[in-house]
Specification:
By secondary structure, the chain is mainly α. It is about 75% helix and about 0% strand. The protein folds into two domains: about 200 residues, MFS general substrate transporter like domains (Growth Hormone, Chain: A); about 220 residues, Growth Hormone, Chain: A. Strands 1-2 form a two-stranded antiparallel ribbon. Strand 1 and strand 2 form a beta hairpin. Helix 9 packs parallel to helix 14. The N terminus is likely disordered.
Length: about 450
């Protein structure tokens, strides 16, 4: 159950509420700042202090360890961010607070001092924790219960995320590698400020969405806050928590992109293209590029499958997404085999891996966001979204640990092991699909197009 929304007429654009596009662009700039910084973080850490563009000179293992802790904490902070929104601020105000913290954090990172480095990361962790779960919950709040457009709406929102990620990997990555790491960090802060301004100016399209339920005059809102959860709501919380296991496994594998795969692109991939060396950070843009190109097609595939009466539940999509993403690591297995035999690895292996990772992500990540808003009790809407992002954070930490293990196990073993485990885990969850769907109590059984 999503946060109760006032039944007001909402102006639409391309078949969706205009408010969706306000959230789309806000999240686009937030992700531009985050992924831009992520694209250069590990590279900054491992670059020698004597380099023409000096970094911190850390070892790969040290850099991946920090990367794992940082990316985990960024998303685990969504739990307190969700609690603060549910109990004190509401989602809308929490997004504004988070955006302000992010502007401060990225700006501090532009200062070339170690105190600024750690302080900036701290502000970014707090900012993402306030913004990320609450803006995602607001997307669900735009749609009435049972509206089939919800999954597509989250996919559109997700495309916004990845336009930001795509542009930031190219722009911030280039600025950071060529002109200076701290210029890249500072650019991310400027773009986050644009996102904050855009969100504030678009409030008229978000009336009744993301407001604090404690101050609502709606009787249903007040009752939802006061009464204990019933059996159906408890079952739905259980299935959400169980589905989060897939999220942890997925992101434990998927987030090798910013760590081990980033280092692999930098150190073991032949990046020469027509006499020009492609920056290692640019490979981070492939995932976002494929999401922009393939996002609508994947969403339409699942929507058409559902309309034909075939299995297309959120849980089934997540299972398929996990298996497809795992399969993508077999291309990294091939890449490492090529490197071991010839001393060089072709760029197309990374391209193929990222393409499979993207198709898997499109079947799991935006769908799981939508799934949370369908099943989460209204009084815990932001908290459950916070728990979802926390599980992605645990997946990020797992990714860091797996990346570190490559120092003694080797990339071939790590990439192959990830592929096998993801595929087998997805098939195992498939065996329990019917029982898990029963716990949702038909939350997706009667979805249809509902006019706003």
């Amino acid at each position: 159950m999503q946060t109760t929304v006032k039944q007001v007429h909402r102006k639409e654009l391309f078949g969706h509420p205009v408010g969706l596009y306000i959230l789309f662009f806000t999240e686009m700039w937030e992700r531009f700042s985050y992924y831009g910084m992520r694209a250069i973080l590990v590279l900054y850490l491992i670059t020698e202090t004597t380099d023409r563009n000096p970094g911190l000179g850390w070892t790969n293992m040290e850099a991946l360890a920090l990367y794992g802790w940082y990316t985990m904490l960024v998303y685990v902070a969504s739990i307190p961010g969700g609690i603060i929104a549910d109990r004190m601020l509401g989602q809308k105000k929490a997004v504004i607070v988070g955006a302000v913290l992010l502007v401060i954090g990225h700006s501090i990172l532009a200062i070339e001092q170690m105190w600024a480095f750690y302080t900036g990361l701290g502000f970014i962790i707090a900012g993402v924790g306030m913004l990320k779960p609450n803006i995602s919950t607001m997307v669900g709040g735009l749609y009435p219960k049972g509206d089939i457009r919800r999954d597509k709406g989250f996919t559109i929102f997700y495309i916004g995320i990845n336009i930001g990620a795509f542009l930031s990997s190219l722009i911030v990555g280039y600025v950071g590698e060529v002109y200076g790491w701290h210029y890249g960090f500072g650019l991310a802060g400027i773009c986050m400020l644009l996102g904050l301004l855009q969100f504030v100016l678009g409030q008229k399209y978000l009336v009744g969405v993301g407001d604090f339920l404690g101050k609502s005059s709606n009787v249903e809102d007040q009752e939802a806050l006061k009464r204990p959860l019933n059996k159906m709501e408890k079952d739905r919380v259980i299935v959400l928590i169980l589905s989060f296991l897939m999220v942890i496994v997925f992101f434990g594998a998927f987030e090798q992109a910013g760590g081990l795969m980033n280092i692999y692109a930098s150190e073991k991939t032949n990046r020469m293209l027509m006499g020009w060396e492609v920056p290692a950070s640019w490979f981070q843009s492939l995932n976002a590029f494929f999401i922009i190109v393939l996002g609508a097609a994947v969403a339409n595939f699942w929507a058409n499958r559902k309309l034909k009466g075939r299995e297309a539940s959120s849980l089934f999509k997540m299972i398929v997404g996990l298996i497809i993403m795992g399969t993508g690591f077999l291309f990294m297995t091939a890449a490492t085999a090529q490197f071991e035999s010839s001393g060089s690895s072709a760029m197309y292996w990374l391209v193929l891996a990222y393409m499979f990772h993207t198709v898997g992500e499109l079947s799991l990540s935006p769908v799981s966001l939508s799934f949370v808003t369908k099943l989460a009790p209204a009084k815990y809407a932001s908290l459950m979204m916070g728990l979802y992002f926390a599980t992605t954070g645990f997946g990020n930490k797992l990714a860091g640990l797996l990346g570190e293990s490559a120092s003694h196990l080797g990339e071939y073993t790590v990439f192959t092991g990830i592929a096998i485990f993801c595929i087998l885990f997805g098939l195992l969850i498939r065996l329990f699909l019917k029982k898990l769907k029963a716990l949702t109590h038909g939350a997706e059984d009667n979805e249809k197009r509902i006019a706003q």
